[in-house]
Amino acid sequence: MELRDSVVVVTGGGSGIGAALCRRFAEESPRALVVVDIARPGAEAVADEIRAAHPGVEVDSVMVDVSAEGQVRDLVEGCIDRFGGIDLFVGNAGIGTATGIDATNEQWHRIWDVNVMAHVYATRALLPHWQERGRGYLLITASAAGLLTNLGDAPYTVTKHGAVALAEWISISHGASGVTVSCLCPQGVRTPLLFGGSDESTEGELAADVVKMQGVIEPEEVAESVVAGLRDETFLILPHPEVATYEQRRAGDRDRWLTAMRRLHAQLTGD
Q1: In this structure, is the dihedral angle defined by the CA atoms of residues 47, 130, 83 and 40, taken in order, positive or negative?
Q2: Per-residue model confidence as pLDDT tens digits over 132-188
Q3: How many CA atoms lie within 13 A of 73 on its CB side?
Q4: Which terminus of the chain, N or C, has fewer Cβ atoms within 10 Å?
Q5: Half-sphere exposure (CA, 13 Å, Cβ side) for 164?
Q6: How far apart are CA 119 and CA 164, in angstroms?
Q7: How far, in Å, CA of 30 to CA of 118, rounded?
Q8: Are 85 and 133 spatial neighbours (Cβ–Cβ below 8 Å)?
Q9: Which element (helix H / strand E) includes 83?
Q10: Does this model's pTM top 0.70?
């Protein structure tokens, strides 16, 4: 996919990876770029920055809670009405819990709604439009945790696995009708999700320590990988290439991989 003259929508675009994606996409001269975030000030700040740097790109900012299907549907329909279509929809909004299996039911439901159901809602709204046009591109931001496991965050791991599975299902089921899907699976990235500094729980520290020890990259590096992946229409976009090796080892001998992960868990926790 070439981004020039395209209409691009990015959720979670007010900070972190989403903001870096918006800035990098703008360099490719899309026709329109919609920065979406649950925090209006963040979305507006990123949009203002891009307008100043790229006056030829039409930029809008929208406040949306992606866990609310009606708001996602209104976002999609509003962009189609305004711009005549959506070429690339980036489902990037996501949250973590820094908890284990004892996360509250409310935490489990909330993260499921944001990390999985938001992609379901977007796809439901986008598919009729894309099937009529015969083309459309969906990028789902998952995580290396969706291919492997995040030791310190059970709900995050489970929902990111769900996001990867959903992306695969959409690609298989609707690829023949012109819908292209990519799934972004980075490891540690210098974002508020990893370096927010607000969680002092044991599980929270473990979740952060595990990804930090694997090597942290900048959001801008992720954005470069995404642009290259979109150009090649690669399903799995891996800013940390070593994740492919880890996944192959996991699939090749699951018992051995689990043993190694238990050893790592014990090393980090002292258990």
Answers
A1: negative
A2: 999 999 999 999 999 999 988 999 999 999 999 999 999 999 999 999 999 999 998
A3: 7
A4: C
A5: 20
A6: 11
A7: 24
A8: yes
A9: helix 69-83
A10: yes
